[in-house]
């Protein structure tokens, strides 16, 4: 199964009849543009529409208004059908933003920042100039009949974020299958059962009052405050009080309890913590809990404040 190209995005594939399979960059088709779209509908609705075999449309990424969550639906190497211009489709990445052109409240700061981080990452990866001639609106595609993202999209602010003017860097993600970055005893099992998993699999264990945590090792680039997130698949058979352990810069360990029976298949904020720079075990998952159900260790992410 395909996985997201962008660190921190979740992967929900568009229907195969709604894009053109390709091998861009490797086959000589360069990626030269990022095209900004507005869904004219909900986040969930856009994702569902791109999964509909009769829609004949897709985008590489969809971003949620409320919190900036990113779903990738077409791999970067493939050609999404989003621009209304075949040449631009061949040479661009399309990003859909939840909302409506005529209602500015949908363009939240969380969405601007998440989108700018993604666009910056794409520009760095593919050598796209971080300018308005290469980061364009759907309305600016030659021959376009669409008006999105429209007059309420703040291009000045957005481009300042893309070019580093206050935008957060993309988070650092460690999955349980990341080589050399995850340790757990042989008591932890491995499962591929849930479709909400991050990556290829996840780890599980029965709750017990013993010290037997799994640890995620992260190379923290600089000391400071970080938002700490966890990803897990949710199920009624999973733990309703899964303990996450965060090693703070003062040497103490904070414990945050997460309900893994809900909010699966997404990034969940555990809190903001002061972390010390260095390459060490930063986030753990403990089995020592009074909660019921399997404790899950899947993926974690830190984002510098």
Keywords:
305 residues, Jelly Rolls, 2 domains, Amidase/PGRP_sf, cell wall biogenesis/degradation, N-acetylmuramoyl-L-alanine amidase activity, EC 3.5.1.28
Could you give a short description of this structure?
This protein is of the alpha+beta class and 305 residues long. The chain has 4 helices and 20 strands. A hairpin with a 5-residue loop joins strand 15 and strand 16.
Instruction: Tell me the domain tally.
Output: 2
Taking all Cα atoms into account, the compactness measure Rg is: 20 Å
- Tell me the overall shape: globular
CATH class of the largest domain: Alpha Beta
Order of helices and strands: EEEHEEEHEHEHEEEEEEEEEEEE
CATH homologous group name of the largest domain: Peptidoglycan recognition protein-like
Describe the SSE topology.
Layout (H helix, E strand, L loop, with lengths): L9 E2 L7 E2 L12 E6 L4 H8 L10 E3 L6 E3 L6 E2 L5 H5 L1 E6 L11 H18 L8 E3 L17 H8 L9 E4 L6 E2 L5 E3 L10 E4 L8 E7 L3 E8 L10 E6 L5 E6 L8 E9 L2 E8 L9 E3 L1 E6 L1
Explain the overall architecture.
The protein folds into two domains: about 10-160, Lysozyme-like, CATH 3.40.80.10; about 170-305, Jelly Rolls (Sandwich). It has four helices and 20 strands. It has helices at about 45-50, 85-90, 110-125, 155-160; strands at about 10, 20, 35-40, 60-65, 70, 80, 90-95, 135, 170-175, 180-185, 190, 200-205, 215-220, 225-230, 240-245, 255-260, 265-275, 280-285, 295, 300-305. The strands form five sheets. It has a six-stranded mixed beta sheet with strand order 1-5-4-7-3-8, sandwiched between helices. A five-stranded antiparallel beta sheet has the order 10-13-18-15-16, with no helix packed on it. It has a four-stranded antiparallel beta sheet with strand order 9-20-14-17, with no helix packed on it. A hairpin with a 5-residue loop joins strand 15 (about 240-245) and strand 16. The longest helix has 18 residues, at about 110-125. The chain is globular, with a radius of gyration of 20 Å.
């Amino acid at each position: 199964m395909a996985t997201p190209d962008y660190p921190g995005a979740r992967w929900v594939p568009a229907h195969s009849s709604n894009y053109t399979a390709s091998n861009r960059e490797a086959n000589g088709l360069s990626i030269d543009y990022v095209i900004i779209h507005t869904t004219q509908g909900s986040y969930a609705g856009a994702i569902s529409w791109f999964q509909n075999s009769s829609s004949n449309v897709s985008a590489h990424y969809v971003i949620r208004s409320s919190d900036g969550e990113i779903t990738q639906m077409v791999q970067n190497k493939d050609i999404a059908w989003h621009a209304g211009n075949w040449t631009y489709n061949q040479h661009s990445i399309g990003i859909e933003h939840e909302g409506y052109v005529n209602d500015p409240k949908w363009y939240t700061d969380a969405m601007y920042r998440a989108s700018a981080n993604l666009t910056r990452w794409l520009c760095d990866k593919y050598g796209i100039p971080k300018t308005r001639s290469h980061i364009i609106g759907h309305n600016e595609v030659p021959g376009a009949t669409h008006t999105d993202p429209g007059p309420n999209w703040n291009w000045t602010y957005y481009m300042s974020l893309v070019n580093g003017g206050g935008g957060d860097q993309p988070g650092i993600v460690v999955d349980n299958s990341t080589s050399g970055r995850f340790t757990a005893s042989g008591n932890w099992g491995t499962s591929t059962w849930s479709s909400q998993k991050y990556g290829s699999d996840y780890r599980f264990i029965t709750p017990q009052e013993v010290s037997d945590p799994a640890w995620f090792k992260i190379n923290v680039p600089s000391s400071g405050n970080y938002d700490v997130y966890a990803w897990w698949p949710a199920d009624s058979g999973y733990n309703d009080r899964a303990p996450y352990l965060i090693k703070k810069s003062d040497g103490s360990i904070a414990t945050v309890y997460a309900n893994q029976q809900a909010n699966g298949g997404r990034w969940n904020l555990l809190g903001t913590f002061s972390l010390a720079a260095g390459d060490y075990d930063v986030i753990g998952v403990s089995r020592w809990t009074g909660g019921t159900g399997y404790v899950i260790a899947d993926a974690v992410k830190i984002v510098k404040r």
